[in-house]
Target: Site-specific DNA-cytosine methylase
Amino acid sequence: MNQPPSKRKKATSTTFSNSTPANNSNNNNFDQDNPANATITVTAIEIPELSEQEQSDRLLLERKVERAFFEAGKALRELRDRRLYRSTHRTFEEYCRDRFAHSRQQSNYLIAAAEVYENLTTIGCQNLVNEDLTTNRTQVLPTTERQVRPLTKLEPQEQEQAWQQAVEEAGGKVPSARIVTDVVQRIMERTQVTNSYHIGEVCQILAKDNPELRGKGCCWGIVTHVGEFSCTLRTWDTELTVGLKHLKSFDYLPQECEQMQQICDRLNRIYSESLEETVKNLLQSLGKLNRPYLTAMEDKLLNLIELEYDVIA
Model:
């Protein structure tokens, strides 16, 4: 018996349906002769709105993620300041390396970032005039240490202004580290002062809130290089480059600068990492003198150390 010819359903247009089919293969009709004319059934998936409690939980968890670097920096600062590492480690640097696999610099970055974060939440960011600088009705704050690091170069009031400007440039969102760096650089260029220091001048280091200068506050050094925005100093134990706002000249006379150069040479010839702690402490105290000479006792002690380590010039 001959089979009757099959009838094919031909659609004249593409149709999207929100109905839920029992079997997609039975509801999607494909015209092999004209693929453009096909009936496609799409299942709509309803996404339920968050309840008030879920919205509250989400905001709380988001805040915890955003504040992670801040909490880490605060904890490290307390561990350092209270010397809670002293029962197992000789120095904070050794403790951070063994316990957290941090270099001393990484820990200092986190500590400095926590201080900046605190500044941003206390100086003025909580009372933003521009309502567009809020996300989900919450204050826009840094979420990583890298975003905050450039701000450590500014004074607290400048930090708050720079952050607001970076948020504006990011369209009201959390700005990237690159945007923050660009803003900070522009601010520093506007406020830059002429470098009036000269080679051979004796300057004091003002560490302030710069983590890279921790332990060098009040040290004096001899200027060995004058840059556009910084000077390179030779101190009692090292050579380092310091920004202009972290320097203060002693305004010594030329003869006094020569005397300090001689003292610096003596200290540098003695210093090494292998020195006993007592000797290091003495050299460090001489490296923080606020006068251009040694007392008779200081000179005797330094002579004794030079003889002991056979470093007489």
User: Anything to note?
Assistant: Strands lie at 15-17, 39-41, 134-135, 138-139, 202-205, 220-226, 230-234, 239-243, 247-249.
